[in-house]
Amino acid sequence: MGVHPTAILATGAELGADVEVGPYCVLGPRVRIGARTRLQAHVVMDGDTWLGTDNEVFPFAVLGTYPQDKKLKGDDPGCRLRIGNHNKIREHVTIHGGTPFGGGQTTVGDHNMLLAGCHIGHDATVGSHIVFTNGAMAAGHTWIGDRAILGAMVGVHQFARIGELAMIGAGSMVSHDAPPFALLQGDRARLIAVNVVGLHRNGFDNAQKAVIKRTFRLLFWRVGSLHQKIEQVRKSSLYREDACRRIVDFVAASKRGVCQPRGGRQHAGDPGDELTPHQEQQPRNGDDAAQA
């Protein structure tokens, strides 16, 4: 199709090979679009916005317009928005560029599915292979790890982080950091289990799953302060395992605090928690509750 005659391209907009720009799209002067990307219709792109190759953007999506930040003045330019390759950006999705107060760039990786009505705020960092279900919203300065899934109408508080392969149930408000590989749900998101189905679908073997389950038990489902439990795990042989380190280091780096289990989930430790990482145990306390 090429560029539809009703589309408006400002002088300076750059299009790669085989880009399709549909009816009534509007592109600003600093927009760059990579090869084979398709804008269906009524797409608005503005600001210092780069969109990579092989993306598809559906009607009424708005990318790179002026960020929603009260600190900005009328003469402050919006900063960078960088979106990778092979993303599906559905109807009415909004993504804002960075601000001078937050690092200056919003980043979205590759192979993401951003379903209808989603929002990604200024200065956010979104990884790859992530699903934002309809109406999910990530506020400014948030960080979303690879392969995370945000259910419908999830809200992620500014500066909060979602760990890799975490699954957030529909309607949750995430005001603290969500650990990697976790399953969370609730009006104020609470940790309820390990995302076992997600681990299976992404090729984690039984030994790796056992390490993750045991790390969760030691960090979240035993009594004691989180700082003490982090140090105990770091001193154990379990910390030699890559999956354990990824969880522990994420939790230790938290500035907002980590989403905690629902009431009644914490318990005293038992000798089984001190077994070597590759000895599989029978799940307890819902460790095998699963969600894709």
DSSP summary: helix tally: 4
Instruction: Give the end-to-end Cα distance, rounded to a whole number of Å.
Output: 37 Å
Stretches with pLDDT under 50, minimum 5 residues: 270-292
Please state how the strands of the largest beta sheet are arranged side by side. 3-6-9-12-15-18-21-24-26-27
The CATH topology of the largest domain is: UDP N-Acetylglucosamine Acyltransferase, domain 1
Strand content bin: 15-25%
Helical residues, percent = 10-25%
Alpha carbon gyration radius? 21 Å
Q: Can you tell me the number of structural domains? A: 2
Give the overall silhouette: elongated
Please give the number of β-strands: 27
CATH superfamily annotation of the largest domain: Hexapeptide repeat proteins
The CATH architecture classification of the largest domain is 3 Solenoid
Major sheet characteristics = 10 strands, mixed
User: Which structural class do you get from the secondary structure elements?
Assistant: alpha/beta
CATH class of the largest domain, named Mainly Beta
Q: Determine the mean pLDDT.
A: 90
What does this entry look like structurally?
The chain contains 4 helices and 27 strands. The strands form 3 sheets. It has a 10-stranded mixed β-sheet with strand order 3-6-9-12-15-18-21-24-26-27. The model is unreliable at 270-292 (pLDDT under 50). The two termini are 37 Å apart. The longest helix has 15 residues, at 206-220. The chain has 292 residues and is an alpha/beta fold. α2 packs antiparallel against α3 (226-235), α2 runs parallel beside α4 (242-252) and α3 (226-235) runs antiparallel to α4 (242-252). It folds into 2 domains: 8-141, Hexapeptide repeat proteins (UDP N-Acetylglucosamine Acyltransferase, domain 1, 3 Solenoid); 199-274, Udp N-acetylglucosamine O-acyltransferase, Domain 2 (Up-down Bundle), CATH 1.20.1180.
